[in-house]
Design goal:
The protein is an alpha/beta fold. Helices cover 53% and strands 10% of the residues. It has 2 domains: 176 residues, Beta Polymerase, domain 2, CATH 3.30.460; 123 residues, no CATH class. It contains 12 helices and 8 strands. Helix 10 packs antiparallel against helix 11.
Amino acid sequence: MNVKEYGLDLHCTMILEEYRELLPVLDRMKEIVLGELNALISKAGLMVSGVEARVKEEKSLAGKLELKGSKYRTLDDITDIMGARVVTFYTEEVDKIAALVEGTFDVDWSESVDKRKQHALDSFGYDSLHYICRIPESLFSDPEMPELNTIRFEIQMRTALQHVWATINHDTGYKSGVEVPREYLRNLNRLAGMLELADEQFSLIRSSINDYRRKINNLVENGKFEEVDLDGDSFRRYLELDPFGRLTKKIALINQAEVQKASVMPYLKVMKAMGFNTLADVENLKKEYSDDAYQLALSQLGGTDIDIIASSVALQDLLTVFILRNGGGEKGLEMLYTEVGGSSPYNAVRARQVFEKASALSFMHSPENK
């Protein structure tokens, strides 16, 4: 399409022609900026919702020039001619991304704006951090494209919920020049307030969970198991102490077997169902039933040529003994196998075999056995 067909005045037509001439440079800028942002985020170990970049389309630029072309002297005055956006999950990570951008690109502070700080006390709305930047020569340069280091571009940083708000606001009339009826504007503001509150709560919950995990780590490290509720986080931290390692090695020595790594996390649900509420309950299981669990393993492995066992064998045998000594019988064993390995007709057969073999062991006939 000929630029004159847009019906722009001479000044705006010249800017549009400048855009066409610099399009290869703008596309190269987009590649450089997008690649650098992805590399920075990866190196920092941050998880974000998305990273994107675009060069403004010609038709969009023509529309912008038609509306307010007189305010731009040259193409460089249009600071979002090339734009990138980083969408984070949490509000505090917007500032982390900003710090990475500040340390990588040349930021034009006179043109950059933090829209998060522009709201009145009784209003909500479009929250985003906008940096106007240039690519420094120290980062990248090309003698054949000197404009790479002179053209400014925009980087927007916002949360996923802020991005939702911006998209909705734009779709319902933002930048259209059409006044939104008061009743609709009120609903938009209510929605903005809800999204802002949700953003704050997500960050607060995340912070609280991290504090909880630090507390759990400290309690487990100091052996205060009775103060630690049994859950996924606490059990994983407990497993780092290798609490069942000694019994596993002892069982492996029965046949000089090799121990293969296997997760014991599936047993967590079983223990919760059995009434284990704290890590102290698991620790007591280990202390009280380890000798009987070894006796059970000896009866199962002795006389066989099994030379490979799973590292989960110790906890499995501990829970087997717990079930048997507390009157769970075959049904209790079948439940254990089903919860850990899934439904199978063989679970009942296996439960019967284990129960029959265990019935001959001394722990099944002890006075305290229920």
